[in-house]
Design a protein that fits this description.
2 copies of one chain form a homodimer. With 214 residues, chain A is of the alpha/beta class. Chain A has helices at residues 9-27, 35-42, 46-54, 68-78, 94-101, 104-107, 138-144, 156-168, 195-213, and strands at residues 32-33, 66-67, 85-90, 110-117, 126-127, 130-134, 149-152, 173-176, 189-192. Chains A, B: Residues 17-56 bind DNA. Chains A, B: It comes from Caminicella sporogenes DSM 14501.
């Protein structure tokens, strides 16, 4: 069982969306915005937005609305973006390489320090400046380099063992792409990206629409 | 605004998880299971499981529990897995290639018919047996081949235009990996995988844990 938050996950999952939309407003040089305008852009009700933000002390002023830059920075801080994170990627197949190549992550302060794989054909290669290391050297690497987030991009058969190895070396946050629910110590954070589950949500809606039409 | 379901999205998003766990039980040759046992394995309460399944007519018998194979098949049908889906991938970069290489999708009935890209170095290449075609030929391809799901793996700048092109050619379901909320006609289904939003959920929990510890 991984770590549970004191704020509801539904609220937490909306925060990155606020952050993204506020960033777009900033890029368009918009300085302030009412909760009503923000609600029209982002697609949540104004009351939802106020409630969400009240979890973190509340922002904005009656009659003025929100200062865009201030709110963007505050939400960034709430999301933990006022610091950087060292990451490693386990599994240097296509997905791992896609993530290593995704330079957008760096803008948010994520620094990928190494990738690991068991495939001799991949070991020693570099994706951008990130070296693919031998999986056997994982523990040695983790004893020398402080890593905040382990990103698991392996098959489901390997994922649990890798999670065990990461957590026993002190990695306390895992971004997991393997289609399995990892068992980790209580205080470890696991965030899953289950691609098949996302795709099956889509087919559910597809099927439901067909049934309504027929 | 894309299509809204009559069943709550929270319920729908749990269905693929039931499907996955039931598949594991089947593979372990387990024929029947009580809602209590299922709840221990899957991590939802037994009452949650009963409530979820009651949305679709209810399954299982008092005193017997669930027939694993029957429930697996029923949930598969509810998820629309009793048919196949033709897909195309737009954007043949690392992520698009990772998805094209992910043979797991085929087991669920997804057939990737083609990939599309604007990069001349990629056009004409094949990922497994899937050809990367010139983006300019998208409309021609769609007029000849019935495609159920368009998978968008481009940058955010291109994603909306591609969604417009897909929907105007009759593609009514989009699996979107670009970090943008697409505007589509009311009846089109959009399922997003917003990787950055997932990662920022993780950093939120990281930050919250640090604050509690300090």
């Amino acid at each position: 069982m991984s770590r549970k938050s004191r704020v509801s996950m539904a609220v937490i999952r909306r925060l990155p969306k606020y952050h993204r939309y506020l960033n777009e407003l900033l890029n368009r040089d918009i300085k302030r915005i009412s909760s009503k305008e923000l609600s029209e852009i982002i697609g949540f009700t104004a009351s939802q937005i106020r409630q969400d933000l009240n979890n973190f002390g509340g922002f904005g002023q009656q009659g003025y609305g929100y200062n865009v830059e201030e709110l963007y920075n505050e939400i960034g801080k709430i999301l933990g973006l006022d610091r950087g994170y060292n990451t490693i990627i386990i599994g240097a197949g296509n997905l791992g390489q896609a993530l290593a190549n995704y330079s957008n992550f760096e803008k948010f302060g994520f620094r990928c320090k190494a990738m690991f794989d068991v495939n001799p054909k991949l070991i020693g290669l570099k994706i951008r400046d990130i070296e693919i290391k031998d999986m056997d050297t994982l523990e040695e690497f983790l004893s020398e380099t402080q890593i905040d987030i382990g990103i698991i991009c392996t098959n489901k058969e390997s994922a649990q063992l890798i999670a065990d190895r990461l957590t026993s070396c002190g990695v306390t946050a895992i971004w997991n792409f393997a289609p399995v629910d990892l068992k980790v110590p209580d205080d470890v954070i696991v965030e899953n990206v289950h691609l098949i589950e996302s795709l099956l949500t889509l087919t559910y809606l597809y099927k439901e629409r067909e049934e309504e039409e027929s």
